[in-house]
Amino acid sequence: MLTEEFKHIIDYHIAAEKERGKKYTTIYGGAKNAATFLYALQEKGFETLQAITEDAVLSVFVRADGKPRYSRSYKSNISAVFKACIPQDPETVKRILTYFPALRRVRNNIQYLTPEEVTALKHVLSDDYPHLSRRDKAIGILALNTGLRSCDIAGLTLGSIDRERDTVLIRQQQKTNAPLELPLTAAVGNAIYDYLTMERPKTRSEYAFVTAKRPYARLQSSDLGVISGRIMDAAGIRQAYGDRRGFHIFRHRLTMALLGNGVARPVITQILGHISPDSINPYLSADFVHLKELALSVERFPVGEGVFADA
What we know:
Blueprint: H1 4-19, H2 24-43, H3 54-61, H4 72-84, H5 90-97, H6 115-124, H7 134-146, H8 150-154, E1 161-162, E2 167-171, E3 179-183, H9 186-198, H10 221-235, H11 248-260, H12 265-272, H13 288-293
Antiparallel strand pairs: 1-2, 2-3
Helix pairs in contact: 1-2, 2-4, 6-10, 7-9, 7-10, 7-11
């Protein structure tokens, strides 16, 4: 639906970023955002880069009432596409980039598992709790102790588990596609072993976790979401509307535990399979152990009587 010139911008960006080795999701996420941006300009009558004006760009990003229509990350994705195309027409592309408005970074507080919720989870994932399958328990224990993403748990193969070296070796599928080796603790190893030997259907599938019914296909990420919800229902936690119920919150819990115990950030980065150490920054807002150390006393400020009377 785009003009030929606008199509060329998207195609050039994709080719350039592929050559640089960027991740698939990053490349096509940016391309999608840029396509919607260019199409919005095209609908306003601007069909070439030369014709684009500052008012046109601002009308896409900002509503009539002055409130931003899109997020800062949306703008960053589009900027990346245009920056990749600077060699094609430096003067025009740089001019358009100056039209992009400054948008404030908005970051919501990340929900986290409380110590009470973790205790409840550990109870339903233990051998003493009979109302979850061994498969669901093994997956839950694996997620809770390793912080693996759902896609990587679903893609775990029998060959990924090295019982001799007590390690799990995977290639991260959705994010970096980089290899990741994690220790296979006794709790995780025993849970997986119990499932494989006592419950897993007889199948030639190479994947460790399969469906409970024929044709015993590998699990998908969506299946992991159902299993996570089932575990939380069994534990009686996170039942309110809007509560995070996916396994990613287990990943967050592991990060918090490591930060709280003073583990160095590069080590945490390696455990989580991140490429950049900055990737754990969003988790810092819930690192209460160290945040409390930075708290400032209010004793030096005058506070009226009765302010804390009901506290």
